[in-house]
Specification:
Length: about 350
């Protein structure tokens, strides 16, 4: 509020206007006068008015018509509606039209003191409303800025994941070319294994690039793409069938990488060792079980009775163990299965403490 707030008194009663000016001046107001609605609107347009006292019955525009015109002015001052009429309908209409208060003129000398109080209250309410509007506007602007920054961050993260996925895919392709050109079977196998590991990581970044949510990966879609990469990378159609049965489970990207690498190692292990006499089926299953996620890789091959292959370096087993610890997983061989079935059970939430893996693989 200004040191001396300015009240515009709009009324064709000049005698009452002089009383208002004398009374409110003693209370620290600057009082200006307009004899009708048009003159009042012209003065309001010049600015500098803090509150308006507006009479209903005037020549030309009446009070309600003038009030409607005032409310159409941006940042209009508050209006205290005044009239000599005792008709409550006018008061209700004025308040609905936007008046801050309503006063009835009297002949007992109470009008000016009541107008002083109403004017001060109207000014305070207008200041509070202005501060609230400014605060809400700032909140909206801050929210818009945050939304813009979040959208920009998401776009940058998608671009980063896109570039990482492309780069890893190039590395996987180079490994594939090198494996195909190598005459040594051991080198070819090592390069193929490395290619699968790189592809498992690349697939996560491709999933994030195309996903609506950069914080999670749908494992069924991820494993489907990963197994398709493995099908293409396996030469000579050594697998008669590579099946996937997976529920649409969401998980964070870091653990999705661990799951992908485990699947890659165990599937490739089955491709190399489960069916020495020819290709055979390999099954990958993923399902929710309460708060846990259960992953299994199954083949119907030679199983536990097979002797260790002298070509095995144990690298796959170490990789699976490391990734299982990252998942806080419990991994076990199913002793009742005729071939080999590895089951990993881990919590759907982020693990806190890693536990050792109890099964061997690869």
């Amino acid at each position: 509020m200004n040191v001396k707030p300015t009240l515009l008194y709009v009324d064709d009663d000049k005698a009452l206007a002089r009383l208002v000016e004398r009374g409110l001046t003693r209370h620290g107001f600057c009082v200006e006068y307009a004899s009708d609605g048009e003159a009042g609107l012209a003065r309001i347009a010049q600015g500098g008015i803090d509150v308006i006292a507006l009479d209903q019955y005037m020549p030309g525009l009446d009070g309600l018509e003038t009030l409607g015109r005032i409310q159409a002015i941006p940042n209009a001052p508050p209006v205290v509606f005044v009239t000599a009429s005792q008709n409550s309908k006018i008061a209700v209409t004025a308040l609905k039209a936007g008046a801050a208060d309503y006063l009835v003129k009297d002949t007992l000398g109470e009008f000016v003191p009541l107008l002083h109080v109403a004017a001060e209250v109207a000014i305070r309410q207008a200041l509070v409303q202005k501060a609230r509007d400014e605060a809400e506007a700032e909140v909206r602007a801050s929210r818009d800025r945050y939304a813009a920054l979040a959208a920009e961050r998401e776009m940058l993260l998608r671009e980063v994941n896109h570039r990482i996925g492309n780069s890893l895919q190039i590395i996987a392709s180079l490994l594939h070319l090198q494996a195909n050109s190598s005459p040594e079977e051991d080198i070819k196998a090592a390069l193929t294994n490395a290619m699968g590991r790189v592809a498992a990581v690349a697939q996560v970044h491709r999933r994030l690039y195309t996903s609506h949510d950069l914080k999670s990966v749908l494992l069924n879609q991820y494993l489907e793409a990963l197994l398709e990469d493995l099908r293409r990378s396996t030469e000579g159609n050594r697998m008669s069938r590579l099946d996937l049965k997976a529920q649409p489970v969401e998980i964070d990207p870091d653990r999705a990488v661990a799951i992908g690498i485990i699947v890659n190692e165990l599937v490739m292990n089955a491709v190399k060792y489960a069916y020495p006499d020819g290709p055979g089926p390999i099954h990958v299953e993923l399902a929710s079980d309460g708060d846990d996620i259960v992953l299994s890789i199954t083949d119907d091959g030679v199983g536990l009775n097979a002797r260790s292959d002298p070509r095995s370096t144990g690298m796959g087993q170490r990789i699976v163990s490391a990734m299982a610890q990252k998942l806080d997983a419990q991994a076990e061989r199913d002793p009742t299965h005729a071939g080999t079935r590895i089951v990993l059970r881990f919590r759907s939430g982020t693990p806190q403490v890693a536990k050792p893996m109890s099964a061997t693989a690869a």
